[in-house]
Structures are given as structure tokens and as C-alpha cells.
Amino acid sequence: MNADKSRFEATVAASRADRARVRKLVDDKRWREAEPDRARMALYTAKRQRRTLPSGGAEAIVGTDDLQASWFLPAGSAVRRAVGYVESNNAGIWSVGSGFLISPDLFLTNQHVIADALAAAATQVTFDREAGEDGTMRPTTTFKLDPAKFAIFSRQEEFDFALIALGSKTSGPADVADLGYCALSDSDDKHVLGMNVNIIQHPNGLPKMIAVRNNVLQHRTHRTLLYETDTEHGSSGSPVFNDAWELIALHHFGEPFLERTDEQGRPIPINVNEGVRISAVFRDLSNRLQLLPDEQRALLNAALKLANKNNSHSGGKRLSPPRPSTDSQESLVLRQDAAPMTDKLPTNEMKIAIPIEVTIRVPGASTAHIGAPSPSLPKELTRGAEKIAIDRDYSNRDGYNPNFVKGVVFPLPEPTGKLAKQVAPLRADEEDAAKGELRYQHFSVKLNKSKKMALFTATNIDGKRYLDIDRTTGLVKDGAEGETWYSDPRVSDAFYLGQPFYTAWSNLFDRGHLTRRMDPNWGTAEQAQRANADTYHLTNCSPQHFRFNQGTKFWQGAEKYVLENGAIAEDTENKISVFQGPIFDDKIDLWSDDVQIPSSFFKVIAWKGKSGIKSVGLVVDQLAMLSEQRGSGIKPGPAASVNVSQWRVAITDIESRTGLDFGSDIRDADTIENKDQPVVGEARKAVPVMSSSDLLPRLP
């Protein structure tokens, strides 16, 4: 829901002079003079010294609290697990934010994130949506909310909170006890003006991040705190902490204001943020306590009495169970011209990987990347140096040609229904950017922005002009496979899986070609070499089990078999068109962190036969293989039995399972409709592919 920021903006304007005073004192390393309430300052200082100094020690350091005790990072690492990513989709109104557990039973966020009980019932909360110790994504755990059990809302004009009972777990390895909580307190020793604050958040729907250091608390009202720190859309509902990781505020608003100037007097935008004081939330909840039914009163009373407690937990790289997919990219649009958040930082920032990404701003410091020693990771199976070079002048790519087969038109598959909204657009300066077609040499790719892999690839194959390409050098005739894969600058890399994913999950998956490496390798030597290299774009890659190619020889050879046995009309010069891609099924698909792994892949081959248009649909299933891990990065020996289900199926079945429309010509020409073919299953025609001859019926 839209937040009313008028009172916030009024507070920012009214406090400008006070905040400038605090900022000046901090800049002058006199931050301890910023707090006007000296009794509060004394309590805060005494508590801090008990935590950080030896008995009888003197604190000689001046300036803000940039020097922290050794427990600061692990304590923050522990408390961050209670922070969750909130997704609410109520009656078509989609909103995202952050929130956190205040007890094992109750979850707190903003009321402008979850407006009421109806919205809460349509909300899911995902925990551990973050990078792990090795920089790769951790397994996530998702819970529903249960407003029928407990729900209290405070309007955004008052305290802007929604406190709701945590519901049932829908997926993931973590239990509530693993996540911990951020206890509420109304004590007066948790904050003073001039100190730094820390905020754990999901900015712009990104994985969990922490803003720490140089985030100064500048103003206090009876209801709110104002502070400068980095927040974005999606940070609403985040917890704000002091350096002891005690909860001091519920973040709810943030805006850039031009309040500072540079050396030339030009205004500098700064982010002024407002959080609702936790003491104010605590007192409001306490006042409501006696008005609640017995069961709800017991839940709230238990939460208000909790002492801070942190739990730690580590997760392994394992697939999580099936769960409903959320096509969040449909509503949360990434800026096409923005660089990835981790690529470039201002020169006064550095990033530290603890188990989550932390942004630290240090005045006058230069950029640095610091990482803890990486644990032993599954190694990638690579062979030799990569010599294939990508031609970065994409203007010479012809892409898929619908008129490639003489006398017929095989158009690109058309995404239908909700799937049409998931086509990833190209960058704004690309031609027909909204259509999302990435044209390569003799093939094209369209990406599914929510699944982060291809919707489909479409390839033209010229059997008469085919050239054999060396897989190492990329030149005509010689060698073995190269291993370097490339990004495509024409589309945001947020829309497809990158190398870090395949590195992290190399115990299960290879980088699997969709358009096969050899299929577009025809034409002149230059064209064939360019086509071969183009198949090594990550946009043409999908997570396929490492034994996939061992068990799918009929699937892998289907194009060649059609070229040799498809009774292709002579006037077409042995040309065919091939479409392939992943098949997603929420009921059975497993998950790699936040990536839904397709259990199946489809292939549709179309050509002009001697008696007219012909087509065949194939499906291969990798689900049964996903329980086997490669282990320790050692190349596996031959399996005793690699059992991959391969089926020839009706193209209408592929359409219903993918949401793609292949057009009436391809659909009507399906060879599965041959009356001599068996029917397998209850309502679907399917032929188990046990030999190459099963790929096609006997064609006239």
C-alpha cells in the first residue's frame, strides 16, 4: 500500500537544524556531546563500557564507535537470521518489504507493508535469503502468516506496525528455533544521539544486506528516530540496531534530501530515514494487552518478557522441497541501466563477506574487497584453457529465421497468459527491447526473468552446410569442449543464472546447453565458428544434472536422426527448425536456494516432409537423478544405471506444460497423432524413447 510520508517530511524539515548540529559534532569527533539528555548518555555509556572494556579500563578513543569488540560481527551474523523477506500479494496488489521475529511466535513489520488481516493471509515470509560464508546463496525457508491466530495493526499515522503470528512452514530446512528473534524492550539505555545505527534489510527485493558504520542517529521524538543510512524500496519493516545488536527502531520511511553541500557549494543528496522507536511500539502493545483474548494475550505477554537471545545455524548445499513459485519480477522491475550492486562502490566504501554481504562506509577510505578464507567448495570440472572468443559486435547476428525452411513458416513460440509478462526485456537501447529476443548466429533465445533461465531457444539447422567445430579452439575441425561461458551485455544479468550459481552447485549440476553446441554450426567457417562460440552464452545455459548427457543419447541425437530419417522434402535442402527449453512444475520441482530447478526439458523439431509439414515433440526428465551428488569435485565414474526418462509426447502437451504456443502449423503436423502410435498414461499420448527409431513414426 502507498505510505503517507507527510508527517515524516515535516519532521525532517523541523529537525534540520538539530540534525545539522549532530552531524557537525560527529564530523568534529565530538559525538558524545550530541546527546542533550545527560542521564540517558550516562546509562548508555555505562552499559557500553560493561560490554566492551575490561574492569577498570579507561576509554581513550575519540570519534564515533568505529572500533568494535570482536563479538560485533558474529553477534550481528546471529541476529540477522530472524530477519525475513516479506512478499504480500493480495487481490493483485503486490508489495515487498522486510520484517523480523520478536518471539518464536510473532512476526513484526510495517502496516504499510501488510495492511490488514486479509493481506497477511496472502503473505509469505522467506528467511535466510542471503549469501552464505562462501558468497553463494543459502537454502531459504518460507513460512506463511496466521492472522487468525494473532494480528494487531497500528496505522502508519500512529506507529505503523503489523504484528502477526507466524504460520506454517511451506518449504526449507530451518525451524523456528534456528532463526532466533529480536526481543522488544523499552529501556532508556539503548541509544543516544550521535551514535551509529545498523540496519538489516532486503533493499529493492535483493538478498539480505546490512548497512553499518557512519549511519548516524541524529534526532529523536517521542515516537520516532531519524538517522542517515542506506535504505531502498523493500527495506520497510527492517530492524534498526545499536552496536550491541539491541533493537531500537522499526524502519519505515526513507527519502533523499538535499541538505549538505560539497566544496563548491553544490547540494549533496543524503538519505534521511525514520524508524518507529521500539520503546513506543512496546508501550503501545503493553496498553493493548488486557484487551486481547486469553490465547492472544498469552502470546504477546510472552514476547514482551523475552530477553535478547541469538542462535546460530549453518546450512549445507542441498535441494529444498517443491513449493509454489513466485514470479516476483512481474511486479519488481530492476533498472536496466543499473550496475549490479556488488560491482561498483563509491570510493569510500568496502564490502566484507561474513555470512552476508555488509556495506561499510568509512570516510576517506578507498574501496577494498575483503573476504574470509573460503571453505572447501565442490570444484568445477574443467578441462584445459578456453580459446573460444566471442564476437562482441552483435549486429552481425542473424538470429532464428522463421522462413528458414523453404515454403513454410515456423514462427517463434508465443508465451501465453501470465508467462507473457515474464519475458525478460533487453536493455533500452537495443532494437525491439520489449520483445526480449536475443539473436545469435543461427539461433535466438528468450529469457524468463523470474526463473532466471531461458523460456526457450529456437535454432535453424542446415544439414547440408553443417561444419564440425573443435570444442576447445572454436575453429573448424579439431578437439574437445571449452569451459568458459559468457554473459550477454544486451540484457541485464539479473535475468539469467551466472557462473557463481553453477560453481556453488557443481556437486549436482553442469552448465547444460539448450541450443546444442553443434546445431547452429553451419555456413561459412566464420559463421560456424561464431555460432559455436555463441552457444557458450550463459543465456543458453540451464542447470542439468551432471549425468544428464550420459543418459540422454537419444534426446541429444534427435536432430541428427530427423535429418537422416525424417523423409525431408528435397526442395528444403535438408533444413529443420528446433525449439527447446525447460519445463517447470511447482508440484515436483526442487529448489536450489531461490532457483527453481526444472524437472524436465522439452524439444520440438519441425521440418517439411515429402508429404507436408511434420513435427515431433520430446520430453526428458531429470528429476530421478537429482538425489545423486558428484561429491568433492571428483569426476564421477560411470553409473551402474543412468535411468533418464525420455518420451515422445504430443506438442499440445508441451504447450500446456510450458505456456508456449507453437502455432497451428506445428501443432497440426505433430507425428504423435499417427494412429499407429500407442497411448501411455491416462490422457496423454506418449511414446517411451528406448531407441533412436522411437523418435519418429514410420513416415510416408
TrEMBL record:
Keywords: Endonuclease, Hydrolase, Metal-binding, Nuclease, Protease, Serine protease, Signal. Residues 439-669 form the DNA/RNA non-specific endonuclease/pyrophosphatase/phosphodiesterase domain. Residues 309-332 are annotated as: Disordered. The keyword Hydrolase applies. SMART domains: Endonuclease_NS, NUC. Mg(2+) binds at N549. Its EC number is 3.4.21.-. Residues 440-669 form the ENPP1-3/EXOG-like endonuclease/phosphodiesterase domain. One of its GO terms (molecular function) is endonuclease activity. Gene3D superfamilies: Extracellular Endonuclease, subunit A (3.40.570.10), Trypsin-like serine proteases (2.40.10.10). The active site is at H513. This is Serine protease. The lineage of its organism: Bacteria, Pseudomonadati, Pseudomonadota, Alphaproteobacteria, Hyphomicrobiales.
